[in-house]
Amino acid sequence: MKIWKRIILLIVAGLTCAYAHAQEHRIEAGIIFRQSQSVIDKDFANNTEQLAKITHLLDSMRHDERIEIRSIEFCGAASPEGSSTINKRLSNARLKALENFVRSHADEEIPEELIIRNDHYIPWATLAEQVAESDAWYKDEVLEIINTPVGETTDAAGNPIDGRIPLLREIEDGAAWREMFQLYFAEMRNAYMVMVTYVRHPNVTTRSIAPHEQYPFPPTDIVTEYPAPTKPYPRHLYIKTNGIGWLMAVTNVAVEVDFAKKWSFQLPIYYSAYNYFTSTIKFRTFTIQPEIRYWFSDNVNDKFFLGAHFGLSYYNFAIEGKYRIQDKDGETPALGGGLSVGYRMPISKNGRWKMEFSLGAGVYALKYDKFFNTDRTSDGELSHTINKTWFGLDHAAVSFSYMFNLNKKNR
Length: 411
Hints:
CATH architecture of the largest domain: 2-Layer Sandwich
Order of helices and strands: HEHEHEHHEEHHHEEEHEEEEEEEEE
Shape: elongated
Strand content: 35-45%
Number of domains: 2
Number of strands: 17
């Protein structure tokens, strides 16, 4: 029996050891800025302690090769007073100040694909939590306003501000606003970092370190554990539209989402039900063209891509000639698919607005009716029906898109 007990203990110890080496750690550190400032003041609030926390973490990673960064998020925020323009600029500048501090103290360059940036402007959710936990007599009214976004408005000087601000200022002639200013606003002028690290299995030679040096923070910072962690890829959602389609009076919209590193899925929809100023010229269609794309860039899904798409199109075309063509009985769409190539690039400073060029060709099975193209009538006389296989260009696009970050986590 003793030998079996020893074997069981050894197995349990081995599993526990292997599990410990796959622990994932979530470390948070934040600093506070003086009002209207975006320069880090080490002597303000508890910034010295928080900056030392970050430095200690980076030093621990420098001396232990097993610790690797899984992701790092930088967030910037501002308190509600001031215009939207100034506060947005402040929150972004505070985020950049903290990011520059971390980069300057890191031993190696932090890969761009591991970074998430969140300049969420005013942290209303944090303010709501603080008010809810207080015993303020006005908290129910304040919480109702905070939790009901109303869009932007303007102040007396014509500057854009969050629509909740004037409503909050009206409570008891500003008494609630003044109290929140004293109690909560200072902590809202912040930037913070959320870094997720993990410890790889000890398959590399590292120096021997003391137990208290092994992790930069106590086990309470551990939120999730994985047996074999992998680095995340940046995932984005794109809402886009094709400018060439609009030039042809065809309304269109497309959605694209990254579903794996270097892979994305796009679904464009085109619709037109109008003639071109006369009944004998028209380009009516309802078309969808879902596409799988492979991107050649190693970071975000930009620059060159190769795509494979499926196409379905109902159509009714006439170009002032003798005939008008329409899919058979209006119920026999063109079906097929093909390949496409393209290039996408950012056109704004924050990289969210993008411009994309793409060209595709495919093979389609067609069955359509040819009608005599008569003037001022909706339907001409049927001439004949055609079945054929068609090959050629099936789309051309100059698209404009806006990118949403699916990895972003709001505090």
